[in-house]
Amino acid sequence: MKVAIQGAACVASGICGFIAPKVFPNREEIGGIVELLGPNPPQTEGDVARETE
Length: 53
Ligand code: SF4
Description:
Elements: H1 15-19, H2 43-50
């Protein structure tokens, strides 16, 4: 699974980080805007990340 983000559309709600924190860390230091740890998460994390679509 390949994951991508649309940072310009992010409103920093943190839902993606709540659902899949190992894929989207949403760090407070950058205002909670979505961040991607890597475009190819492990299968188990990718399955969870799919729920954020
Ligand atoms: S990308 Fe994540 S933090 Fe940003 S608006 Fe969507 S769910 Fe919220």
